[in-house]
Amino acid sequence: MTDSRKPILDLLPDYHYPDMDMVRKIIDGKLVNYDEGKVPQFTLPSPLQKANGTTVGTAFEWVNSQRPRILDMFAREMYGRILSRPDSASFEILSQKDDALDGTAIRKEVRLHFGMNDGRKFHFDLLLYIPKDAPKPVPVFLGLNFKGNHNCTDEAITPTGQKGGVPLELTADEKAMQIGRWHFREAVKRGYACATACYQDIFPDRPDGWGQSALTLFEDNLEGFSGAHENYTAIGVWSWGLRRMLDYLETEPLIDASRVAVHGHSRLGKTALWAGACDTRFRLVISNDSGCGGAAIARRWFGELYIVMHNVFPHWLVKGFSQYHGQVEKLPFDQHFLLSLIAPRLLAVASASEDLWADPRGEFLASVKAGEVYRLFGSQGLPDDKFPSPDGKITGDVSYHLRRGPHQQNAFDWEHYLEIADKYLR
To answer: Predicted confidence band at 165 (pLDDT cuts at 50, 70, 90)?
Structure first.
């Protein structure tokens, strides 16, 4: 007899879980399912159902009543309180190169400084590429990276991602480790700027990263704290960082800050969705293989489960979310509610055919169900409710594609995102 769990075990190393023993014990306990035949029957709540049991019938009612209620539910139950702007912000150009990327781009390294009136300070560094020859101002793709700005490009720039001091791969000696996930040259060629910063510099991705995170601008007693917080999460702080990066882009005269696409892969896909829900300035919101806690429907009990996530990454979700670990059917929402918060703006969800851990069908189902809200605005939402074959693309106000292969972000993903931007952001 073959081990039906083997495909998941093969996928796990790509996720870099710090406690693989815990993950394997959970899988060995048969809590994880990737068999469609074993997906339980479930009923999805509607994002249009109000607290009193009646149904939202207009876009006005959604925007002014239901949307704020759902946003507040996610903040209280899952991603933590929505952090505000700091009392002050300033932006320091660390370097500028006017013939970057083989002469096609202007490259800037920018330090984003933030302060509070009581003297607290925090900063992190942003990398920005702007096409030289495109008509200005240009639209921009904005996203966080895993391994430092220097690992997103083959050019010599200042290493970032060093603040947390934990991930061994984030060394100054490395560069271009994840250049395949970014495709700066193609984006610039198509007339788009690209901006990124390392998520580790905003909140070190570990349970005790609180004392070195941007949350120290707002909260006391974080040094030495570890685990899940009552009120805040790392995902919430990372999303705050994306919003502050957009603040900077609004000051850059070569950038059209009304045409910004926020994107993210894996846990940073979860972050991009939450940032897009919290901040309506983002015109296009992109989730790449975000899975559990991102675009995937939790009630399917397929692939990664919240019990895995919250045990291994307790800092990702608020402490109280643990009440739903074994009973996700009691959640007052599911992830199609999160996607609905993007409406009527552009939304793109991407999955990978071999990425069972992120539940591609669950991500697709959430994309379809978000159409309930998009239709309030006269939009079709996702134009097709048939799950595509590998390498299939569906493009609309809500877009979806299923890339052939494993958990990754590559040229195929970027080609679709650029197609969407060409069609809608221009």
So the answer is: low
